[in-house]
Amino acid sequence: MIDEEGKKPLWSYVKSKRKDVVGISSLKHNGQLISHNEKQANTLNDQFSSVFTREDDGPLPSVGTSPFPDAPDITVSPAGVRKLLQQLQPHEEMGPDQIPTKLLKVGAQELTPGITLLFQASIDQHTIPQEWKKANYLPSKKEIEQTG
Q1: Domain-embedded: residue 66
Q2: What span, in angstroms and rounded, lies between the C-alpha atoms of 55 and 49?
Q3: Which of 2, 64, 70, 106 is deepest in the core (most CB within 10 A)?
Q4: Residue 88 pLDDT
Q5: How far is the C-alpha of 10 from the C-alpha of 83, rounded, in Å?
């Protein structure tokens, strides 16, 4: 038999009886039973701190020469940049720079030298501009439905 909400009464009853108590059970420390949350947290912290060693925060020791060879320099090719620009989907959303994807695709030939220069400079200088770290994120319909 099914109730108004579409749940089977037997399983609702079983589920209600299986609820666990939230929290940490009482702890015994130095012969005393501790049930207060803050005291339990401090007791657990003391226990964990006692079994781990504190690492020296000083400089790391030198390990000599690396067994791994140096990675070769990375070169950004204009042909690769142009190919990626031409593969953009015009219907995709704009990034934080608000440059329409269609403009990047259509202007790939003209934009390639400048974009190649920017990417190569970023690699050579070992830095990523803050603006490049930003992104626009739009949740999918499925994600919205799952949180709603």
Answers
A1: no
A2: 12
A3: 106
A4: 92
A5: 61
Number of domains comprising the chain: 1
**pLDDT at 23 > cutoff 70:** no
Residue 9 lies in a domain: no
Three-state secondary structure call for residue 39? helix
Domain residues for 103?
78-130
Dist. CA 117–CA 103, nearest whole Å: 19
pLDDT at 56 over 90: no
Q: Pick from 102, 91, 99: which is nearest to 131 by CA?
A: 99
- Let me know if residue 119 belongs to a domain: yes
DSSP secondary structure string, 44-105? HHHHHHHHSPPPP-SPPPP--S-SSPPPPPP---HHHHHHHHHT--TTSPP-TT---HHHHH
Crossing angle for the helix pair 78-86 and 108-124, to the nearest 10 degrees = 120
| Interstrand relation of 32-34 and 27-29 (parallel, antiparallel or unpaired) | antiparallel
Which of 18, 42, 19, 23 is CA-nearest to residue 32?
42
Residue 115 located in a structural domain: yes
Q: What is the pLDDT of residue 54?
A: 73
pLDDT for 109: 96
